[in-house]
């Protein structure tokens, strides 16, 4: 597989002040990669949204690109809610990631899903060539079958 993708949703956060603070979100994204033994390759980007016509939708959104992929967060401070994605091309300690983000925002409860991304991701050019060749054979076989069927009809 290519790597794990952790999706976390935190509800009823006690630290709504942290969810609303662009600098706190920035700090989280600056520290988080190192906590997971990942490599930051660009400075995190964080934006604050005032909610526009729906003030309860206010919060901060941010992401950091890491050599292994990315970490992204969206917070809704008035609602005490956040979503977090960690996608990595290498395994990481999911329990440590959950503990870190939960210690940061203190959700009353949270849910998470862990997906294996790219289960057929080829790790080498040689393996990629084999997959492409097999796909071409299947396509050609299907095409030949369709042509043979059309001639018989």
- Tell me about the largest β-sheet: 6 strands, antiparallel
Low-confidence stretches: none
Total strands: the figure is: 6
Question: Oligomer, anyone?
Answer: single chain
* Rg value: 22 Å
Mean pLDDT: 87
Structure notes:
- This protein is α+β, with helices and mostly antiparallel strands and 153 residues long.
- 39% of the residues lie in helices and 31% in strands.
- It has four helices and six strands; from the N terminus they run E-H-H-E-E-E-E-H-E-H.
- It has a six-stranded antiparallel beta sheet with strand order 2-3-4-5-1-6.
- A hairpin with a 2-residue loop joins strand 3 and strand 4.
- The chain is elongated, with a radius of gyration of 22 Å.
């Amino acid at each position: 597989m290519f790597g794990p993708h952790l999706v976390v949703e935190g509800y009823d956060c006690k630290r709504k002040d942290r969810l609303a603070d662009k600098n706190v979100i920035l700090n989280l994204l600056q520290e988080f990669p190192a906590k997971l033994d990942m490599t930051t390759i660009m400075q995190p980007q964080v934006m604050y949204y005032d909610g526009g016509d729906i003030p309860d939708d206010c919060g901060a959104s941010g992401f950091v690109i890491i050599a292994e992929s990315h970490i992204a967060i969206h917070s809704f401070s008035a609602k005490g809610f956040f979503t977090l994605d960690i996608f990595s091309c290498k395994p990481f300690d999911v329990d440590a990631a959950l503990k870190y983000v939960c210690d940061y925002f203190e959700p009353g409860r949270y849910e998470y899903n862990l997906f294996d991304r790219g289960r057929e991701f080829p790790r080498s050019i040689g393996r990629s060539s084999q997959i492409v060749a097999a796909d071409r054979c299947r396509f050609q076989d299907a095409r030949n079958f369709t042509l043979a069927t059309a001639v018989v009809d």
